[in-house]
Design goal:
Helix content is 34%, strand content 20%. With 476 residues, the protein is an alpha+beta fold. It has two domains: 10-203 and 375-471, Aminopeptidase; 205-259 and 306-373, Alpha-Beta Plaits (2-Layer Sandwich), CATH 3.30.70. Helix 1 crosses helix 4, helix 4 (129-146) crosses helix 14 and helix 12 packs across helix 14 (444-462).
């Protein structure tokens, strides 16, 4: 399915051929830095990764490359603004990665990346250091072969995407003056099942909560006290059972009130996607697939309908053998994926009140709001999106599909709401990339062809005036 670059630019092609080994070595080098944003012990690695990227940006010929301090991990910024009549594109990727647990399920060390069967294996290979690296290498190739870029670029590389993006909104706000652009390209998504090139047109939002159920100040002897007090673990189980009906419908009052129902056209488009349910089940490795809600297909439930999931439960005795206690407390992390126009903060209040209302007597129940993010819908008719589709077709040899993602990128909606910029989500990862899981991989043909796609796209956008890119002109 994947073909080689059809670009007529011989110098560019020769450069890519000549630098293939160095490119791979540089990719490996970036992956070796354990930039896990969620764990404070890796804070020095975050700085190391940010500095590594800045050094690369400097070497390539980008300007104003800077490790920008925030209250958390740094943001990396750079720009190149010497194409006066061409549009300005802001490219967003993130250089932080997810923690590696469960470490024993990795076949090799997560930060000792290697190539196997045409794939890069290692934490961050796909999400999102691989994609960030593609943008570096695309810029490098164009600057090295032509001495200039076909358009104006601003790179914004975040270091906290995998841990709630706490500081990027503030950074965007205070740096608005240097973020003027015509559109944002986010490279943190991937291809459709079967590794079909895709442009993502929606993301789900998020509400993340923690439920804390507390009984006695200490664990109690279950012989002496069993039968006279409420057990916090049993109470938590009762609460969790009440969150969803047997058919998957979320029972929190008002949960679906603000959900924008998909149009018949949207549902038709989703039904046309070449989705192989059996292959998908095989990849996921479950005994059966279960649609989350009655009346909606698997693909709809996985992308355009809201969900509620328990992410973890703990409390009481979990060691070897038996220990007869009534635990003093029990806890659960519960998250909801949200769709337009659900509001996470409003839903948190409804969720908290509902949890309290269904909690059994004899325990105290607290519900914490650990963070919210808004959902995003983008316009596939946007000229940048159309140009991205043309570039994918030209390099991968097939028309891309437009897909809705079930995932969330907390800052994605902010580019629209805070900077007023249209967003296009162009990502290149293979759907079986094991992002966030052990043995993460990136198909190298996606990486290699993808970076040619990026060059092609920038060339295409470079022929549009700034206004066209923003307002809907076309060069086709
Ligand atoms: Zn990511």
């Amino acid at each position: 399915m994947i073909t080689t670059d059809t670009s007529a630019d011989a110098a560019l092609k020769a450069f890519f051929d000549r630098t293939a080994d160095a490119r791979l070595e540089s990719y490996l080098e970036l992956l070796r830095i354990p930039s896990v944003s969620a764990l404070s012990e890796h804070a020095p690695d975050m700085v190391r990764a940010a500095r590594w990227i800045v050094a690369e940006l400097d070497r390539i010929g980008l300007e104003h490359a800077e490790v920008c301090e925030t209250a958390g991990h740094p943001v990396v910024y750079a720009d190149w603004l010497h194409a006066p009549d061409a549009p300005t594109i802001l490219v967003y990727c993130h250089y932080d990665v997810q923690p590696v647990d469960p470490i024993d399920l990795w076949e090799t060390a997560p930060f000792d990346p290697f190539v196997r069967d045409g794939r890069m294996v290692g934490r961050g290979a796909a999400d999102d250091k691989g994609q960030l690296h593609m943008h570096l290498k695309a810029a490098e190739a164009l600057l090295a072969t032509r001495g200039k870029l076909p358009l104006n670029l601003r790179f914004v590389f975040e270091g906290e995407e995998e841990s709630t993006s706490a500081n990027l909104p503030g950074w965007l706000k205070s740096n608005r003056h240097r973020l003027a652009a015509d559109a944002v390209i986010i490279s943190d998504t991937g291809f459709f099942e079967g590794n079909i090139p895709a442009i993502t047109t929606s993301l789900r939002g998020m509400l993340y909560t923690q439920i804390d159920v507390v009984g006695a100040p200490v664990d109690l002897h279950s012989g002496s006290f069993g039968g006279t007090v409420q057990n916090p673990a049993n109470a938590l189980a009762r609460i969790i059972t009440e969150l969803k009906a047997a058919d998957g419908t979320v029972r929190v009052p008002g949960f679906y009130d603000d959900v924008v129902a998909p149009t018949a056209e949207e549902r038709y488009e989703i039904s046309c996607l070449p989705f192989d349910e059996a292959a998908y089940q095989e990849i996921v490795g479950v005994p059966a697939l279960v649609a989350g809600e009655p009346g909606y297909s698997l693909l709809e439930c996985g992308a355009i309908r809201p969900t509620l999931d328990v992410n973890g439960i703990w409390g009481g005795f979990t060691g070897e053998g038996s220990k007869t206690i009534i635990p003093a407390h029990a806890h659960a992390k519960v998250s909801c994926r949200l769709v337009p126009d659900q509001d996470g903060d409003k839903l948190y209040v409804a969720f908290r009140d509902y949890v309290r209302s269904v909690a059994p007597k004899g325990v105290t129940v607290e519900v914490q709001n650990l963070g919210t993010a808004k959902a995003l819908r983008t316009d596939p008719a946007n000229p940048v999106s159309k140009a991205a589709a043309r570039a994918l077709k030209a390099t991968f040899g097939v028309d891309p599909v437009f897909i809705r993602s079930g995932g969330s990128i907390p800052v994605a909606p902010l580019f629209e709401s805070m900077l007023g910029l249209p967003v296009v989500m162009l990502g290149f990862t293979n759907p079986d990339d094991n992002a966030h899981a052990p043995n993460e991989t990136m198909v190298l043909l996606n990486y290699e062809t993808g970076l040619r796609t990026i060059c092609r796209l920038w060339d295409d956008l470079g022929t549009m005036s700034s206004l066209e890119a923003r307002m809907g002109g076309t060069t086709a």
